[in-house]
Amino acid sequence: MNAVRIVVAVAVAGLLSGCTLVTHLGEPQAEEPPETTAAQPEDPTGHTPDPTEAGETEEPIVPPDVPDDAPDRINVQLELGVPHDIIGKEGEVVGTITVTNVDDDTTCPSTHADESKYGKFVIASFELTAEESLVDQSDSWYGRNFDLSTIDVIDPFTGISLSGGLDYDCLPPADRLSTVQPGNTESGALAYDVADELFAIGWFYGHQYFYVPPSVWGGL
Hints:
With 220 residues, the chain is mostly beta strands. The protein is built from no helices and eleven strands. The protein is 0% helix and 29% strand. It comes from Pseudoclavibacter endophyticus.
């Protein structure tokens, strides 16, 4: 099976703590006065901010276990109901992906569903179209079909998979999103049993990292 990596990220704007170098220049002196730096703000917890430490950002972080031979990735944020092109290795459009809905902390519609093992159920709905040209993709990172079972629920700040994962019993078989073959369009949903309250949804196709941040469906 062609490898399709996912990974669904997100993140929130933060502050960069640091120190500002202040040089005092005055009249000529016998000795040059030493440079001074602004004091670090005190933290009631006793933590000293790292001047190089970045805060939360709008860009999701690519998971750290991405292999070295993977193509350079770009982040593509998806909005509800807005189709986005899926690009092949040579820059051609090989399909479109649309996130149609995200139900956070919901109940499973299947009568065969068990209780959540991790904390809550999340159901994400998609529509995918695969162009006929998808069959021509030959690189291992660019699959010849769209296997959305590799969509993942991730920490929006680190890109690491959350505890839990896909729950196949949560949805009736007719509602589940199936693999999309060249020339076809499929609609359906994927259900996840996860522990964390704050999450993002991520999916890799080739050089594109498609992600749905919690702000898209009111998760923040």
